[in-house]
Amino acid sequence: MGKIKDYDEQLEALQVELVATQAWAIEQGLKVLIVFEGRDAAGKDGAIKRITEYLSPRQTRVVALSKPTERETGQWYFQRYAPHLPGTGEIVLFNRSWYNRAGVEPVMGFCTPAQYEQFLNDAPHFERMLTGSGMVLIKFWLDISRDEQAKRLEERTSDPLKRFKVSALDAEAQKRWSDYSRARDRMLEETGAPHSEWTVVATDDKKAARLNIIRHILHRVCRPGAKVDRPDKDVLFPAQKAKGRLQP
């Protein structure tokens, strides 16, 4: 119980800092965009829930887009995401984003090789426009081991409360593990420009991952006077320092 109590205390303290930081960000007119990517069952939903739990519902939005419509498939690729970007004083969290085209789509054959290559070229330019407009862009890759993913996917199927977490693509997550690893590696390498770097989070320990994600966000938004420990370097680290540390 001691360990759980310590987690709860740390989480509450960080959530207090999040609330104070959002109030300051609203006053300053900041636009904060947080992108969550990662393998299935890596913990995106849980992390987002803890971040947004006490934030202002009017200035906070979680975006988790469904399959594109026929009209959207004929648009400029980034067009369906642009309306959801944050305005002044807003925090927007993408639970998967335009990076579907760097992971799920090429692995599952949902886009052409030419579309995949075009995306890898265009994404850094698109994000340059976002950060150039003054937006604070934070990108997370949530990394999980193959065994832990298998365990979590199995738990989903037997828990009726996790019904909406079950996806038709879950079975492919393990079958195409190596393909997803190759797609991840290329994505991190080619879309992690200095203005839009990736941060990797080891998520086999969900609680440690959540605490360190919040710490990183607080340091990136950088409210004056905030008192927050630095993230644990064994849990959260820059993608450019991830060689040999990512799950194979």
Written description of the protein model:
The structure is a single chain. With 248 residues, the protein is an alpha/beta fold. It has helices at residues 2-28, 44-52, 70-73, 104-108, 113-132, 146-158, 170-175, 177-190, 206-221; strands at residues 32-38, 60-63, 91-95, 136-143, 198-202, 236-238. The chain has 9 helices and 6 strands. The chain has a 6-stranded mixed sheet, sandwiched between helices. Strand 2 (60-63), helix 3 (70-73) and strand 3 form a beta-alpha-beta unit. The chain starts with a helix and ends in a 10-residue tail after the last strand. The model has no long low-confidence stretch (mean pLDDT 96).
Features:
13% strand; six-stranded mixed sheet; 248 residues; 46% helix; 9 helices; 6 strands; alpha/beta; globular
Task: Set out the fold topology.
Blueprint: H1 2-28, E1 32-38, H2 44-52, E2 60-63, H3 70-73, E3 91-95, H4 104-108, H5 113-132, E4 136-143, H6 146-158, H7 170-175, H8 177-190, E5 198-202, H9 206-221, E6 236-238
Helix pairs in contact: 1-9, 2-9
The major pleated sheet works out as:
6 strands, mixed
Please report the number of helical segments.
9
In one word, what is the shape?
A: globular
DSSP summary, beta strand count = 6
Distance between the termini: 33 Å
Strand line-up of the largest beta sheet: 2-3-1-4-5-6
H-E string: HEHEHEHHEHHHEHE
Helix/strand-derived category reads: alpha/beta
User: Radius of gyration in whole Å, from Cα?
Assistant: 18 Å
Task: Return the average pLDDT rounded to an integer.
Answer: 96
What fraction of residues sit in β-strands? 5-15%
Low-confidence stretches: none
Helix content: 40-55%
